[in-house]
Amino acid sequence: MAGPGRSVLGIVNKEREFRGKNKATSIPQSWGKAARQWRWRERAEDWDEAERKQARVAHTLASSPSSLSICGLWKSADPCSAASAGIRPQSTSQ
What we know:
Layout: H1 8-18, H2 29-37, H3 40-63, H4 82-85
């Protein structure tokens, strides 16, 4: 997992490292376009918030399981999954 400090450049470099290539100093144009089109930053922030919420609920349940009703706290859709969240790419026409 990339974590909350992730960046597109960091992901590009992980991919390059996996393939045995040197680190890049900038992202390929196609990666930047895809990140904007698929709202990568917004979706990553939503994912992080869902993970924080899940951790808070787990902590509360572990410390006092009888004090919390978890009904309605969970979203059924994975915020990082375009298909399950019904996310469509934004138009890139200029």
